[in-house]
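Recap from last week: sequence in, structure out.
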Amino acid sequence: MWRWFCVSWLVACSIEAPDEELPFFDPSEPGPYAPGVTTLDVEDPRGGTLRVEVWYPARVSDSLIPSPYPELPLTLGAYRDVPVDPDGLPAPLLAFSHGLGGIRFQSAHLCEYLASHGYVVVAPDHPGTILISVDWDHMGDSVARRPGDVRLAVDAVLERAADPTDRLAGAVDDERYVMLGHSFGAVTTLMLGGATIDRSGVATWCEGRSGIGCRVLSAVQETDEAAYDLVDPRVDAIVPLSVGGWYAFGPGGENLAALPPSLVLAGERDGVLDYEVEQRPTWHAMAEPSDLLRFPEAGHYAAFSDICRILPFHGDCDEDLGLLDAEIGQALTARVITAWLRSRVEGDDRYEDHLRQQELSPHAYLERR
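Predicted structure tokens:
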């Protein structure tokens, strides 16, 4: 995988600038491709089967209608098991890790949007932390196995893309891979990106504290320390959404300095992972270059997942409380992530305008380091 060797965003990278004749697709609008989606069942050598959702740029006929997602009352804009659109392939690979009590398509709106802009997105279910089947008795094992879930899912998609008889044949550029994740999935993203768990940091910070971050991460004390060396060197950049847990990576979050370029998205009214206590310190501990997109009126879920479509009465969706409208938050999230991937990761300066503050105010603010 290609890796950046920049010391700042302004220093020349080892990645060559894109050909200016490449088409420009406005990141504030859905891209030129129909989002296709398929479900894979991947054999897990650790036991059982891993269910994986894959979104990709697709070609569809006018007579087709979008397909519902299984297991949840959710239908957006994706078409199931349709052909890959060969234009623009092979596509960069993105992986997405869901949150505690989430599911692989909890942020389907974002995954579909990215597929419409020419990305292949792979998202596994994480056994033990799915919907109402969260297994608190084995939470330490769940922390340890999650990075492996993603690696298995990514390997399965790469294998299928290399098979000329497969629906995904030729779809993936295996030299470009970015990791995304929400909440618990954001911690998984940090682990895959290069940050290793340090029990001492968890023990020190969480003594006498009972927040959800400490409840989850304190479980690492009960499992084999060697299980947490789960870095994937193929990861070129990371996008953690609603991230916390800096104390899991050293008493001061020191191990976060090993991360590749990152874009952090955070809601300042997050009632799950406090912005000032959890999220902003996690971002500050990360290696530079690193960007932070903060939403002053957003909570933990609405701007980053489809919870308001599934549970419209969820507290994070109550605009009467002064919270950001979910559709506005989702649109800004999708636009900025798309523009950031094009500009920061792929080196296309034409997308910089969509990262300027005047494009984001008053609902979001982008800070750069």
